[in-house]
Design brief:
With 428 residues, this protein is an alpha/beta fold. 43% of the residues lie in helices and 16% in strands. The structure holds nicotinamide-adenine-dinucleotide.
Length: 428
């Protein structure tokens, strides 16, 4: 890398981009509700895109320049809301697709936000903690003009966490005065909410519980396979094991996975990964190590992709996956063609912006608490999350049944209707 070179150029993609995945799914739902052409154009395209170059002083004195994005897809229903990810493959298309999903997610949950997403094309594992902090502060400086508690509120996503949010808060507040509501997913001691860290995994579990009851696949004792053992996958595994009595039989992370037909000892595995060790090196409980791709071959009741996008594809696993339900813990894990294949095979998919909406929902509670300077208990957070996500689930289930469409199309239709109504009421 030269002193002025750009870092982290994305490798060539082998799957459809995030943007094209979202576009084709959007059209199906827009046709279902007969959405006007002009409104399709407003809702399909982003409200505002910001791309910045982010120079960072590295520990050895060189300067590296990273490319960052903040894309505000739609703010008709409230301030834009969405995470920031640090990843070598984070690029414009991916961030745009994820920003759009946030618009549909906040609308489907009926919380007063629009949708946005941010990303920096970087491999954070190659940065020291100080380099990561400098990158975060510089990126925040460069996009802070479009941020704010009533404008656009970032949160954690892949490879960012509460500490990164604390740096964003500090940087933003140094210019605008102490503004805890400017960012969510903060540490609790800096105005974060109880229950935010586990919220996405908890929301996935609540949706699974509802689906289990409706479609006769009792969670207790059922076999669950999870790809990804980070924030979403890790908490989901813990909660399914501890609160739902499910058998988590296989999990994986970037380095590989472990499988045990009798059910993994999830607390022991979590203790192992909490010590910084990869899942695949876990020696415990009579399980066996598997390579990353093997996770898709294990017969199960519930298959939960909870790592990255574009992992269920026509070319790889859509025809061979052996489960009763796919639950999208990750954003955009299923390509549209794979989605159709699963539909043909009679494997239902609970879509990302329903299944993983617990995070942004509890972010909404965090924002509300910050604005009111009032603290909720953990029980209150969980209770409200359960009520909000269950209500959204029921709406999707009922519309899917009524119109004979997939959960994804029904969820999109509800979300599109709400955002379109807000646009119209604002005069568009
Ligand atoms: P994370 O960085 O905490 O964890 C990601 C996990 O995926 C890690 O265990 C990592 O090792 C694993 N992984 C990465 N590449 C992999 C690969 N090729 N094969 C197998 N495992 C791999 O991220 P997260 O916050 O848990 O997010 C996971 C997904 O959930 C993302 O799609 C994200 O957009 C989505 N999501 C997250 C939240 C949230 O609140 N964190 C909310 C909604 C959606």
């Amino acid at each position: 890398m030269t002193a002025t070179g750009r870092s982290g150029s994305a490798p060539a993609r082998t799957t459809m981009s995030g943007k094209s995945i979202v576009e084709s799914q959007f059209e199906r739902a827009a046709n279902l509700i007969g959405l006007d052409q002009y409104m399709r154009r407003i809702l399909m395209r982003p409200f505002r895109e910001v791309q910045v170059e982010v120079p960072v002083r590295m520990d050895d004195g060189r300067i590296e320049v990273f490319t960052g994005y903040r894309i505000q897809h739609n703010g008709a229903r409230g301030p834009c809301k969405g995470g920031i990810r640090y990843h070598p493959e984070a690029d414009h298309d991916e961030v745009l697709g994820l920003a759009a999903i946030m618009t549909w997610k906040t609308a489907l949950m009926d919380i007063p936000f629009g949708g946005a997403k941010g990303g920096v094309t970087v491999d954070p594992k190659k940065l020291s903690k100080l380099e990561l902090e400098r990158l975060t502060r510089r990126f925040t400086q460069r996009i802070s003009i479009v941020l704010g508690p009533y404008r656009d509120i970032p949160a954690p996503d892949v490879n960012t966490n509460a500490q990164v949010m604390a740096w964003i808060l500090d940087e933003f507040s140094s210019r605008h005065g102490y503004t805890p509501a400017a960012v969510t997913g903060k540490p609790v001691s800096l105005g974060g909410t109880l229950g935010r860290e586990e919220a996405t995994g908890r929301g996935v579990m609540y949706v699974m519980m509802e689906y289990a009851r409706d479609f006769g696949i009792p969670l207790k004792g059922s076999r669950v396979v999870i790809q990804g053992f980070g924030n979403v996958g890790g908490h989901l595994a813990r909660l399914l094991h501890a609160e739902a009595g499910a058998k988590v039989i296989a999990v994986s992370d970037v380095s590989g996975g472990v499988v045990n037909e009798k059910g993994l000892d999830v607390p022991a595995l979590l203790a192992h990964t909490a010590a910084g060790k990869p899942v695949v090196e876990w020696p415990g409980g009579g399980g066996r190590a598997i390579a990353n791709t093997e996770i898709w071959t294990i017969p199960c009741d519930w298959l939960v992709p909870a790592a990255l996008g574009g992992v269920i594809t026509r070319e790889t696993n859509a025809r061979t996956i052996d489960c009763k339900v796919v639950v999208e813990g990750a954003n955009e894990p299923t390509t549209p063609i794979a989605d159709l294949i699963l539909e043909e095979r009679g494997i239902p998919v609970i879509p990302d912006f329903l299944a993983n909406a617990g995070g942004v929902t509890v972010s909404y509670y965090e924002w509300s608490q910050n604005l009111q300077q009032y603290r909720w208990t953990h029980e209150q957070v969980n209770r409200e999350l359960h009520a909000t996500i269950t209500k959204a689930y029921v709406g999707v289930r009922d519309l899917a049944k009524q119109r004979g469409v997939t959960f994804r199309t029904a969820a999109y239709a509800i979300a599109l209707q709400r955002v379109a109504e807000a646009e119209r009421l604002r005069g568009n």
